[in-house]
Design a protein that fits this description.
Belongs to the ParB family. One of its GO terms (cellular component) is chromosome. It comes from Micromonospora nigra. With 572 residues, the protein is α/β, with parallel strands linked by helices. Among the domains are: 160 residues, no CATH class; 56 residues, no CATH class; 35 residues; 112 residues, no CATH class. The chain has a five-stranded mixed sheet with strand order 1-5-3-4-2.
Length: 572
């Protein structure tokens, strides 16, 4: 059954149309002013406007009973079909609707269908502007006439649609999707902007925008909304991810799996629908923002890294050698076309070089003194030629003849001199070496101190304080949300005062005594379990333990669907 309701909209001057007595009085007064009388028209001579939501033609049982006993008290407003057609409307739509309502089948016998349409043309003389529900109830009650004012005061279709929309919204007679279609018709057919619709109806523009967004939902989600399976709040969240039907389906499947046999279960199901819809929207938005960031960087000529391990698998060196964080280096790499990026999130991008820079060229040794490279003088050369080499020797050959063997000396060039270390470089190197020695020494000292502490059994107070602080400082999913919840519960229990905040209790610089730290850690752990259970589509063993704890320690009575979820978790 479709769910209606538009509470929260501000009052509009035309809201008087939502009250039968005030509406009748206003219509009668208008009729008296322009000389138009309230008339009892043959009920078959009146037809509903095809643009009016079909749900308005479903007879209201209370109104039907009232008309059977009292007759029709409040008149409607109709316009002659010729005047209605002059607005640019097609009367054939009305005739076809009447024929089909009478049982004629457009795909059946053409002769029978044509006969039914001809009968409708003969009968219908007026089209309803206001009072569709009363006309439907009057027909259901068996009344032969329909009280109405025949008017042509609505000079254009736009005015007619705006007034009808105001009446229906103020009466809360439209489902969210019907309301959305009314807004869309004003935008597309009457070419009004959302702002203009808001001005003419008094309905806030954000409300109009959200309702129109519901029409982007897939059919399955629209059906779930119409049937009351998901509330309109969840549908609005899902409309934001209408382009990702898989995410929408996950929410619908999770909600459909929950029983809803009573009000408490229906409330729980509605809450789950909203929570899961928001969770899927947040995931969708994060993924979209990340993709947009990657696209933007790629457009700037930056190489996008999909997987760090794969990207650096075949590159020499360690990936940390490629990482750069200095803005000047990032700018230089960007200009050189050697910049790569790994997008963690839109606000967290790590930059790398695509290639390691080549090692610096070694410095050329300084030129030697001329004396070291002077050519030997001629006398020295002659002396060298004249004197036998000290390494010359004589040895007999195979025939016993002594043969002089000369041994030559090969000169090996001296190795190239290494670049000389400047005084500044030497000072920096010595400083690094000294810091490394100091770090190694302090690390050994700390390790020895830790070993001494580890050799002693801690007192219960010290152990509780240390473990509690460790729990409080651990960053987990939903940690801030859980901290807020823990502070709220501790305030309710008067454990902390009203001035206590997340930052004063859980901050890194906070000094709290061991007893309060232990209590805060205990409640924080409880809050994490509760948030996890709230976010779970299906309970697992951990969620089941949390529910069991609530049952045993707080006399919690689980709903029927929770009991089933506990049984399912126990079977896994």
């Amino acid at each position: 059954m479709a769910v209606r309701g538009n509470r929260g909209l501000k009052t509009n001057p035309l809201a008087q149309l939502s009250d039968d007595e005030q509406q009748e009085q206003a219509i009668v007064q208008a009729a008296q002013i322009d000389g138009t009388a309230v008339r009892d028209l043959p009920i078959n001579a009146v037809a509903p406007d095809p643009e009016n939501p079909k749900s308005r033609l479903t007879p209201d049982s209370g109104l039907v009973a009232s008309m059977k006993g009292e007759g029709q008290l409040g008149p409607g407003v109709v316009v002659a079909i010729e005047v209605w057609a002059s607005y640019g409307n097609n009367p054939d739509d009305i005739y076809a609707a009447r024929a089909e309502a009478e049982g004629a089948d457009v795909d059946g016998d053409p002769a029978d269908y044509a006969k039914a349409v001809a009968k409708a043309k003969e009968e219908i003389k007026y089209v309803i502007n206001y009072g569709h529900r009363r006309w439907a109830a009057a027909r259901a009650a068996g009344l032969e006439t329909y009280r109405a004012v025949v008017s042509d005061t609505l000079k254009d279709n736009t005015t007619k649609r705006v007034h009808r929309l105001i009446e229906n919204v103020q009466r809360e007679d439209l489902t969210p999707l019907e309301e959305a279609r009314e807004y869309k018709r004003l935008l597309e057919v009457d070419k009004l902007s959302q702002r203009e619709v808001s001005r003419r109806t008094g309905i806030p523009q954000p409300h109009i925008s959200k309702r129109i967004g519901l029409l982007n939902l897939p059919e399955e989600a629209q059906a779930a909304l119409d049937q009351g399976i998901i509330p309109v709040e969840a549908a609005v969240e899902l409309s934001k991810i209408a382009k990702d039907p898989d995410r929408i389906k996950r929410v619908l499947d999770a909600v459909a799996a929950m029983p809803a046999s009573d009000d408490s279960e229906r409330t729980a199901r509605a809450r789950l629908a909203v929570d899961q819809a928001r969770k899927e929207y947040n995931g969708y938005k994060a993924a979209k923002d990340k993709a947009d960031k990657r696209k933007k960087l790629a457009a700037e000529g930056i190489v996008i890294i999909d997987n760090l391990n794969s990207y650096f698998a075949d590159k020499p060196g360690d990936r940390w050698d490629y990482e750069i964080g200095d803005e000047d280096k990032i700018t230089a790499a960007r200009e050189a076309g050697t910049l790569a990026a790994y997008v963690v999130s839109p606000d967290h991008v790590t930059y790398f070089l695509t290639e390691l820079p080549p090692p610096p060229e070694p410095e050329e040794p300084e030129a030697a003194d001329d004396e070291q490279h002077a050519e030997p003088d001629a006398a020295a050369a002659e002396a060298t030629d004249a004197e036998p080499d000290a390494t010359d020797s004589a040895a007999p050959d195979a025939n016993g003849t002594v043969v002089k063997v000369e041994r030559t000396t090969t000169t090996v060039p001296a190795p190239r001199a290494e670049p000389q270390e400047t005084a500044e470089q030497r000072e920096a190197r010595e400083k690094r070496e000294q810091e490394e020695r100091e770090r190694e020494a302090t690390a050994k000292a700390r390790a020895a101190a830790c070993a001494r502490i580890a050799s002693k059994a801690p007192s219960r107070e010290i152990l509780t304080a240390r473990l509690a602080r460790r729990i409080l400082l651990v960053e987990e999913d939903h940690s801030f949300e859980a901290q807020q919840l823990a502070v709220k519960w501790l305030k309710a229990a008067s454990v902390v005062d009203e001035a206590t905040t997340v930052y004063t209790l859980f901050g890194y610089d906070t000094n709290v005594d061991a007893k309060l730290a232990a209590r805060a850690a205990y409640v924080y752990d409880l809050a994490l379990s509760e948030i996890r259970a709230q976010d779970s589509m299906y309970y697992d063993a951990e969620d089941a333990q949390h529910i069991k704890r609530l049952i045993e320690e707080a006399d919690y009575e689980p709903a029927e669907w929770e009991q089933q979820a506990l049984l399912t978790a126990a079977e896994k």
